[in-house]
């Protein structure tokens, strides 16, 4: 069989947003100091029960997922030709091997034998072709769609898939990993998703649970667990109560207070969330349409003091829209671009016409306690410069619809992650005409610099341009950048195999209950 596609993929997308992410280095805290008997969680029988703070997206179609919490779960269901490992490398998945031409224009993938979808059908080259075409036309991740638009030629010849690019792209493999391979003749991905991953989707009860089971025909190392049940607790107190009662085996993204108050013998692992937490400011509404006001807020906020109060100093200051896992792009110097300086903040406010301060609303999703805790501390700090931040807690759906989608807000405290291991995934959203530029940032220099980074095939030049984008965001105080948050994960004493990833995922296939 030989098929040839000679059309440029359509670019029609928007960039995904999330509230939190996980990954990075891992350390383990000592076992709890309260002297209690270690908890083994619920009676597991090789089944795991996980507590999560938000329900999944309405659509489980892999090209329509927007929330990091949905990607975290569905990472175990879907795979691409390649996929990331816990070290940030891309390893073969549905493809058994691949090669890249010396000029960086041609990628050749070899479809793995014996890959079976969760519905029992074999994975074929037609499915791969369908998946790339569908992702290019329907994905909500504009960075992925933009990369696919550069594919000028796609040839399927037996089990060999060859893609030709219009220009070299050193990040192209990361975009390939984002194209999940799905069956071409399956129409129910929205409600009954089917992939190739180590776990298959079984059922979902909205606002209650999501159930996955081990994919017994998985081509690779099989999952150790037979079943994973995600229980949804959008009330943080209810989530902690369930955990501390021993009803859950694992809960990630905990606050320091929750960790310190655990009394049921869990062990706690610490990694990083791999996100950029900030006070995201609507640049199109007063007073944040004034750059001087935004800069004043940056000077008024004491990030070190906030970290000390909320997480005992855990977390990493960022200074712009990039987190440390993106090693070659992250600029640590930007973290100190605005040292805490009340006098400087007051001076800038006076220049902007706000010598007597002002009042604004800080909208925070109530189901993410770390963001709520951060907002409370920041509001107290801003009082020192006569700025009153009124915290408005809203449920997750309201935040997604009104703040993120409707842009009906003044400021919000959340974190943004990336669905791909490249800088574009973090920076594309601030381009002025990006559909998901929810802060309405509009800077011609930024747009031009980002476009130049996208158009160069020289890796060193691209890296320098991306860093220039970060500097522009910092200099113009697009947002009040805070931290890459520490990620505290409480797990049963009997549970082993947890790995932090440089993306927002938890790999359930690695977890197992020790004998």
Task: Note the overall shape.
Answer: globular
Rg, rounded, reads: 23 Å
Uncertain stretches: 1-43
> pLDDT average, as an integer?
88
Query: Helical element count?
Result: 14
> Which structural class is indicated by helix and strand composition?
alpha+beta
Description:
The longest helix has 17 residues. This protein is of the alpha+beta class and 515 residues long. The protein starts with a strand and ends with a strand. The N terminus is likely disordered. It is built from 14 helices and 23 strands. The strands form 5 sheets. An 8-stranded mixed β-sheet has the order 2-14-21-13-3-12-11-10. β6 and β7 form a beta hairpin. α13 packs antiparallel against α14.
Structure described in brief:
The protein has 515 residues and is α+β, with helices and mostly antiparallel strands. Helices cover 26% and strands 24% of the residues.
């Amino acid at each position: 069989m030989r098929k040839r596609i000679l059309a440029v993929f359509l670019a029609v997308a928007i960039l995904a947003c999330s509230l939190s992410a996980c990954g990075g280095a891992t350390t383990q805290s000592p076992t709890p100091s309260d002297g209690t008997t270690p908890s083994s969680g619920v009676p597991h029988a090789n089944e795991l029960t996980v507590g999560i703070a938000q329900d999944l997206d309405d659509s489980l179609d892999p090209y329509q997922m927007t929330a990091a919490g949905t990607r975290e779960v569905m990472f175990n269901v879907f795979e691409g030709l390649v996929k990331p490992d816990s070290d940030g490398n891309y390893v073969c998945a549905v493809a058994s091997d691949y090669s890249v031409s010396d000029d960086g224009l041609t990628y050749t993938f070899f479809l793995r034998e014996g890959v079976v979808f969760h519905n029992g059908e074999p994975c074929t080259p037609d499915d791969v072709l369908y998946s790339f075409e569908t992702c290019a036309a329907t994905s909500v991740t504009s960075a992925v769609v933009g990369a696919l638009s550069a594919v000028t030629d796609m040839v399927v010849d037996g089990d060999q898939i060859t893609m030709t690019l219009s220009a070299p792209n050193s990040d192209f493999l990361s975009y390939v990993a984002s194209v999940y391979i799905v069956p071409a003749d399956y129409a129910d991905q929205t409600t009954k998703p089917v992939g190739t991953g180590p776990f298959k989707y079984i059922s979902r009860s909205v606002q209650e649970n999501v159930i996955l089971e081990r994919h017994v025909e998985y081509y690779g190392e099989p999952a150790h667990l037979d079943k994973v049940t995600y229980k949804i607790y959008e009330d943080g107190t209810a989530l902690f109560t369930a955990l501390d009662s021993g009803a859950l085996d694992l809960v990630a993204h905990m606050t320091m207070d929750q960790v310190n108050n655990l009394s049921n013998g869990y062990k706690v692992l610490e990694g990083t969330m791999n996100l950029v937490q900030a006070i995201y400011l609507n640049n199109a509404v007063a007073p944040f349409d004034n750059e001087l006001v935004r800069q004043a807020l940056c000077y008024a906020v004491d990030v070190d003091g906030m970290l000390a109060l909320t997480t005992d100093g855990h977390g990493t200051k960022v200074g712009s829209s990039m987190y440390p896992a993106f090693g070659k792009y992250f600029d640590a110097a930007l973290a100190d671009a605005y040292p805490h300086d009340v006098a400087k903040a007051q001076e800038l406010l006076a220049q902007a016409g706000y010598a007597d301060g002002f009042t604004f609303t800080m909208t925070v999703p109530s189901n993410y306690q770390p963001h709520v805790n951060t907002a409370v501390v920041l509001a107290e700090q801003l009082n020192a410069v006569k700025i009153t931040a009124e915290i408005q807690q809203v449920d997750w759906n309201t935040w997604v619809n009104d703040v993120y989608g409707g842009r009906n807000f003044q400021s919000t405290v959340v974190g943004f992650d990336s669905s791909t291991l490249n800088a574009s995934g973090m920076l594309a959203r601030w381009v002025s005409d990006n559909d998901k530029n929810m802060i309405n940032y509009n800077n011609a220099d930024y747009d031009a610099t980002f476009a130049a980074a996208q158009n160069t095939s020289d890796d060193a030049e691209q890296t320098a341009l991306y860093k220039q984008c970060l500097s522009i965001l910092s200099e113009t105080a697009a947002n009040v950048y805070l931290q890459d948050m520490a990620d505290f994960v409480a797990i049963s004493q009997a549970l082993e195999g947890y790995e932090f990833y440089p993306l927002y995922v938890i790999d359930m296939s690695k977890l197992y209950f020790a004998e």
